[in-house]
Amino acid sequence: METLAQKQWNSFPDNSMTELPQDVFFRSYVLEANHHVPQHSHSFMQFHFARKGSMRIDVAGKCWIIPAHYGIWIPNNTEHAVWALDDVYLENLDIKPGFLEESINECKVVAISDFAREFIHYATNSISGHYDSQSKEGKLVSVLVDIILQLPEVAFVLPWPQDRELTKVCRTIQESPALEHSVEYWAHHLGMSARTFSRHFKKETGLPFSVWKQKKCVFWNPY
């Protein structure tokens, strides 16, 4: 079975603007399966909404799993990479830091309500890139951002190991969740004792191997 570690990932360049034409700029695009956007950052905040499909976002040794109908806030000047686990239909808001009364200082995943989902879809398809902030469109944008800021946060963060071999282990588990993936199997595969593997994995992720697998299953099947 081909694993994520063995797959040929295609690099997809970040196509965001360097400077935004408005306080809030809307974008919609498809990030195809097996494509990823390498590490990059922006001078503005971002809100990624996965209308369809699932993605993984890596930030500073942590991994956020974003299923369809969830969104993630990414602070400005934050290095991150995006991985499309299948075809992801993204509807994004790029936001100048000064637009919000309180800046977003850390990544967080939120559950999107039906109303917010349709509002985001309408905005990304209908609001121009050069709207007047005092116009009807400008007022709609302000209301939408307020709604998104009030959406409930969900704990979809999964610590990701920095060690290259353990990263391959985690990606294989992510790709083939039906297999047992025992400590003994992976310890033997990496040429170490089960005790050493368990200690090394917990040191890298902060979680016992069994707990990490349980959290991964919950994140991958949130409904």
Describe the structure.
One of its GO terms (biological process) is regulation of DNA-templated transcription. One of its GO terms (molecular function) is DNA binding. Keywords: DNA-binding. Pfam families: AraC_binding (PF02311). This is Probable transcriptional regulator. The protein is of the alpha+beta class and 223 residues long. The protein has two domains: 12-150, Jelly Rolls; 164-219, Arc Repressor Mutant, subunit A. Helices cover 31% and strands 27% of the residues. The protein contains six helices and twelve strands. The protein has helices at residues 114-126, 136-149, 164-175, 183-189, 194-205, 209-220, and strands at residues 10-11, 24-31, 35-40, 45-52, 55-59, 62-66, 70-74, 80-84, 88-95, 108-111, 153-154, 157-159. A six-stranded mixed beta sheet has the order 1-3-8-5-6-12, with helices on one face. Strands 2-9-4-7-10-11 form a six-stranded antiparallel beta sheet, covered by helices on one side. Helix 1 packs antiparallel against helix 2 and helix 4 (183-189) crosses helix 5. The chain is elongated. The model is unreliable at 1-6 (pLDDT under 50).
Mean pLDDT: 85
Helix content: 25-40%
Distance between the termini: 27 Å
Strand proportion: 25-35%
Order of helices and strands: EEEEEEEEEEHHEEHHHH
Rg from C-alpha positions? Answer: 19 Å
Total number of strands: 12
Q: By helix and strand content, what is the structural category? A: alpha+beta
- CATH 4th-level superfamily of the largest domain: Jelly Rolls
Specify the CATH architecture of the largest domain: Sandwich
Main sheet summary: 6 strands, mixed
CATH topology term of the largest domain: Jelly Rolls
Protein name: Probable transcriptional regulator
Domain AraC-type arabinose-binding/dimerisation: 33-108
InterPro entries: AraC-bd (IPR003313), RmlC-like_jellyroll (IPR014710), RmlC_Cupin_sf (IPR011051)
GO molecular function, one term: DNA binding
